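Protein entry
_____________
===
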Amino acid sequence: MMMVWPVVTLLGFLLLTALVIAMGTQSTARYEREKRAASRASAGRKSAPEAARA
């Protein structure tokens, strides 16, 4: 009976740590996708006037 609370505490800590890692991974992936999309959009805007001049 004395070992129940330390085990529950450890499992809770590990579960919350995994949750934070999962949320951080998703957030970082979304940030990278948006950054890539913005980079492509700005690159497309820069090259369009050059194509119009040609």
Summary: The CA atoms of residues 33 and 39 lie 10 Å apart. The helical segments are 4-53. DSSP finds one helix and no strands in the chain. The longest helix spans residues 4-53.
